[in-house]
Amino acid sequence: MKTPARRIGTARIMMAVLFVAAALSAGRARAAEAPAEAARPVDVASLRAERVAALAEALRQAMAGYRLGQNPFEDVQRCQLAQAAAQVEAATTPEGRIAVLKASVASAREVERLTQTMLKSGVGYALATHEAKACRLRLEIELALERTPAAPADVAALRAERMVALTETFKQANADYIAGLGTAGDLQRCQLALASAELEAAATPEGRIAALKAAIVGASASERDAIAKVKAGLGRTLDIQTAKALRLRLELDLALERTTAGPADLAALRSERAAVLTEALKQAEAEHKAGMGTFANVQQCQLALPRAQMEAAATPEGRIAVLKASIEHAREIERDTLARLKAGVGMPLDCAEAKAGRLRLEIDLALEQAKAQARP
Fold first, then answer.
1. Tell me, what's the pLDDT at 19?
2. For residue range 37-46, what is the model confidence (pLDDT) as tens digits?
3. Residue 376 to residues 31, 41, 204, 372: CA-CA distances in angstroms?
4. Do 123 and 4 form a contact (C-beta atoms < 8 A)?
5. CB proximity list for 332: less than 8 A, separation 6 or greater
6. Which of 99, 184, 198, 351 lies 20 to 30 A from 246 at CA?
7. How sure is the predictor about 12, in pLDDT bands with cuts at 50, 70 and 90?
8. Which of 171, 105, 117 is nearest to 144 (CA)?
């Protein structure tokens, strides 16, 4: 059987977990902020439309690479969810968002069938079929939540089905790893996706706290594993940094869920996480330029860093300054991906995702400036 390409490192997986699981929820939340952006509606709408187009191209490239066995299924899943989230955000009405999600679910079903066909043909792998199902269920959950009023029983049933799918995904990743067919990265990605689903499904504060505690245990174990591998000469510094950033993100969420942490404690965690992500982005860029890492590592650090810095910023002016600096850096990264493509050492998928990443930051800046202008 032909073995599909799996160019997935631990660092990439850690950052992907932060984005993929929350991508559509963020899209719905931003769509709900429409009244706050009245000061610059044309600019924001134009940027959103351009980003949707960039992500459509990214998904096309990811699908083409997956069919040829050049890209892992994770590329398809990441682009699929990002495109759906961007389309939901760009929609101006509930009906528009529902239409987007219906189309996304239909597309996800086609991708799911493709993974099954490739598996039966001997050119795919079982893990992709499980992850494709979990991805489709993620979209179905968002569709159920978008409908007004959302039917709690339907949402609960979909979440339960997705939990089963993610459990099977984790079992398959574990079996592949034991058999030498998969990577520790695959196993960690599936483990963290399952933990994220458990947190989402928790119905009480106590349940969410328990889920976060369990996720922190898993993230701490991954961080220790990354440190051990670096000491043994088998790992990368970037793996340690992204594992630590994830653990700090979970600790922040736990502190906020408990509502017992003081402002100073939260500020310290936010500051530490921003510092870790700053180093992670530097490391990811250095590895990518040296041909040792993937562009996905760069972009996911690039988008995580400004969010961490904005969260740590105390004023609107501080958040705007963070976004302006981040956009300049994103433009440099975008130019670098284009130069690498022209030189024959880059990928069209990287260029499309770099453009989408820069547009994400420009949209966030436009929204933040609109909020600042709307304040008395």
1. 46
2. 444 554 899 9
3. 23, 20, 37, 9
4. yes
5. none
6. 351
7. very low
8. 105
